Amino acid sequence: MEEKQAGSSIVFDYLDTDAFIPTKAARRTQLLQSIARQVGEPMISGFDPKLLEKDLQNLSFQLEENLSPAEIDLRYFSSRQDRYRAFEHIHFARAAIV
Is 72 within a domain? Predict the structure, then answer.
């Protein structure tokens, strides 16, 4: 097993747990999950954004940024003219090894 390098970072996207609750999941997210399932890559779990910091701390990571779909939309999509928007239930996170 390789030793973790302090200061190294990881950036990832993840589905929040509401994406797996049919009555809460946005239609577009349900379609994404259906397509992924059909190609043999089912999305089977996500993270609770409120608990992600603690989950990462247990793995010796410090959460540095955890963007919600609304924050992603504002940062990356607000100036677009093609109506393309951030995906519901998908968050961007950045963490560093401590």
Answer: yes
For residue 13, tell me if it sits in a domain.
Answer: yes
* Chain length of the chain: 98
69 within a domain of the structure (yes/no): yes
Tens of pLDDT, residue by residue over 39-96, are 999 999 999 999 999 999 999 999 999 999 999 999 999 999 998 999 999 999 999 9
Helices (H) and strands (E) in the chain, counts: 3, 3
- Name the residue range of residue 49's domain: 9-17+45-97
For 12, 60, 61, the CA distances from 4, given in Å and listed in that order, are 17, 9, 10
Domain count, the chain: 1
Per the CB < 8 A criterion, the answer to whether 97 and 58 are in contact is no
Q: What is the pTM of this model?
A: 0.86
85 phi and psi angles, rounded to 5 deg: -135, 165
